[in-house]
């Protein structure tokens, strides 16, 4: 009995030793693999950095990283060694995300990552206080972080053709230098209040969205000179649009407008207007022009059509408001 106990104890001791050795061996293998992976990452980052350096150019005194039609789904951390970059132009690279360390590129003036597959904007974007242009059109972005409002130098923001953006945080109204905003081909059903409150905005494109109407407060956009609203579902225009004294270009083609407000005839600075492909209730035909150039000008600038339509609309209203005259005319003919 004692011999069996001793034998069992010896077996267990040997087993423990072997288990400990196997455990240590496995840990050594794990550490070796981790070390090998680390070496591979270091090597890959060095190779990537070398490739990135080859894409750096100087134009007009700016240091620019320019990549197009090459696969860069992610950007390596080694990119931080190029912190002097002032502009990124990465197009059609398949980039999946803006790196979290983007905020460390304090010299960036232009960030152009259009035509990629980016799905979100990191909150760190707000650290780029010198950024003047942010171009993220043709991506897969759905929301915009409020931290973007901290980019105090931003003058141009393009988010066109992301398809699913439907609102903007109110904080973006703090972008006091923003003059150019492109929100076309998204999913906006109303003009965001943040946009209405942007004090310096001069150029706005909200074409190809789901807008059904413009708010009465559209008149608050006193700096706006160009407004693109083509391919929406707008059925009527507010009277307050005539108070937009600086508006010179207004595109409303392919909407559901039934009428043109009479007050628009008072918009003296309006130079280009387009009401094509709307179900307007009055049919107005302009007299033929003497030359093809004049015909093209009428087609292009559309102001003659707008004023002619307003005149016809006023005539129709006068007839409605003067039934006696209409009745007398009918009786005379009889």
Features:
334 residues; alpha/beta; Leucine-rich repeat, LRR (right-handed beta-alpha superhelix); 11-stranded mixed β-sheet; 5 helices; 11 strands; elongated; disordered C terminus; muscle protein; Leu-rich_rpt_4; cytoplasm; Leu-rich_rpt_typical-subtyp
The biggest sheet amounts to: 11 strands, mixed
Number of domains as seen in the coordinates: 1
Number of helical segments with 4 or more residues: 5
Beta-strand content: 5-15%
Kindly report how far apart the N and C termini lie. Answer: 137 Å
Q: In CATH, what is the class? A: Alpha Beta
Going by CATH, the architecture would be Alpha-Beta Horseshoe
- Helical content stands at 25-40%
CATH fold assignment: Leucine-rich repeat, LRR (right-handed beta-alpha superhelix)
The gist of it:
With 334 residues, the chain is α/β, with parallel strands linked by helices. It is built from five helices and eleven strands. It is elongated and about 125 Å long.
Helix and strand topology:
Elements: H1 2-54, E1 56-59, E2 62-68, E3 87-91, E4 110-112, E5 133-135, E6 156-158, E7 180-182, H2 193-196, E8 203-205, E9 226-228, E10 249-251, E11 272-274, H3 292-301, H4 303-321, H5 323-333
Parallel strand pairs: 2-3, 3-4, 4-5, 5-6, 6-7, 7-8, 8-9, 9-10, 10-11
Antiparallel strand pairs: 1-2
